[in-house]
Amino acid sequence: MSKPGKTSETVSPITNMLLNTAIFILAGVIIYLSYSIFLKLSDKEPAEKQITQKDTPSEIIQCEVKNGCGVNGVADRFTDYLRARKFDVVNIGNHSSFNIENTIVIDRIGNMTNAYETARILGVKRENVIQQINEDYFLDVSIIIGKDYFKLNPLK
User: Fold this and answer.
1) Model pLDDT, residue 140
2) In this predicted structure, what is the pLDDT of residue 42?
3) Is residue 65 helix, strand or coil?
4) Digit-coded pLDDT (tens) for 96-111
5) Which residues, 6 or more positions from 104, have their beta carbon under 8 angstroms from its beta carbon?
6) Nearest 5°: phi and psi at 53?
7) How many beta carbons lie within 10 A of that of residue 102, not counting itself?
8) Using H for helix, E for strand and C for coil, what is the string for 103-121?
9) What is the pLDDT of residue 6?
10) What pLDDT sits at residue 49?
């Protein structure tokens, strides 16, 4: 007989085993997330310091070609020229404006050697090579074709 005011609840062994398994899995997830946060916070070296400058360009340079002069087909012509020279052109399109005077080569990952090599292949002046590191870009170099396109190697 049970005492008045107290109820006797029995938990089945299957329910007990499922609850214990859930607790074990959650504890593992918490430990994993804590370790991940610890690793992120203990990395004291900023991203800028991790970028190393190479003396030689990459074997394959990934780039994008943007038309900044407004002339139809010029980006396709540059793309064909670069692909014939073992460049990996991953994106072709129009720049946000068509009033770019001089062609610009932009380093996106912090390796100016790749940008200088691209400029050399195209015939772009070294002073038109700039660096704008952007972690959202998954390529080495951006090329914005300017109104000086007819002076460059792809159209000579």
Assistant:
1) 95
2) 82
3) strand
4) 999 999 999 999 999 9
5) 68, 124, 128, 129, 130, 143, 144, 146
6) -90, 130
7) 17
8) CEEEECCCCHHHHHHHHHH
9) 56
10) 45
Task: Tell me the pTM.
Answer: 0.67
Helix, strand, coil shares of the chain, percent, nearest 5, are: 40, 15, 40
* Every domain of the chain and the residues it spans: 12-44, 62-155
**Residues 103, 118: Cα–Cα separation, whole Å:** 12
| DSSP SS3 for 45 | coil
Q: Is 61 helix (H, G, I), strand (E, B) or coil?
A: coil
Taking residue 97's Cβ as centre, other Cβ atoms within 10 Å add up to 10
Bridge partners (DSSP) listed for residue 105: 129, 143
Q: Determine the topology of domain 62-155 in CATH.
A: Alpha-Beta Plaits (3.30.70)
In sign, the C-alpha dihedral spanning 38, 40, 46, 50 is positive
Regarding beta strands 141-145 and 104-107, do their DSSP bridges make them parallel or antiparallel, or are they unpaired?
antiparallel
Residues (pLDDT < 70) of the chain are: 1-8, 44-54
